[in-house]
Specification:
- The structure is a single chain.
- This protein has 229 residues and is mainly alpha-helical.
- It folds into 2 domains: 79 residues, no CATH class; 126 residues, no CATH class.
- The protein has 11 helices and 2 strands.
- Strands 1-2 form a two-stranded antiparallel ribbon.
- The two termini are 50 Å apart.
Amino acid sequence: MLAAAPTPTAAARLSEDELRQLLRAARYHAPRALPGKLRAVFGAEQLRQPPAVEAAMGQVVTAIVRTMAATLTSIRELERALDEHFGQHPDAEILRGLPGLGVILGARVLGEFGDDPTRFADAARRRAYAGSAPITRASGKARVVLLRRARNRRLSDACRWWAFLATQRSPGAAACYQHRRAAGDGHEAALRRLASKLLGRLHHCLAHRVPYDEEKAWACAARPAGQAA
């Protein structure tokens, strides 16, 4: 829309047919009445800049739109290259088999962990490196569970998004997240707990060279809300 009409004056000149074509070109499934509503909005009386100022601002908008379009093209090219090269890695099939790990997140996780099979002796070390393993401090009868601050922050961010996407693709992961919320965890804390679970599954799959199995992965995950998971 901004590419076709970078200024309010240009937008007001768009017909309903032109607006409908723009929406269709953007693959936006708009209600039939939307082009008419947009035309009414664009044609309404409003505060305006002097013509010369509006034209200059329109040039800026056009430049921004072209920059965004070029950036999107570059991103698509990088995604294609990433897909090609990531797919050649011996661990790619295992990573892409886990729920929520596509090409981009899978490559991020692999890149941050590295591909040395002896780097992490167990899942606990892998979790600690990613920051999903909490720190427990106890004094007398007081016990506090804290977020691990010393961690690989890039990997921690990737695992956070991995956990979020897994709740939409894995019934077991979704149930684990809901279980932690029912136990009193906030959204981010529940995602960290889920990420910790997923990292355990990932470590098992890599260590034993077996694909992810949804049924086996969450067979023992369901517990009453007050019981530790």
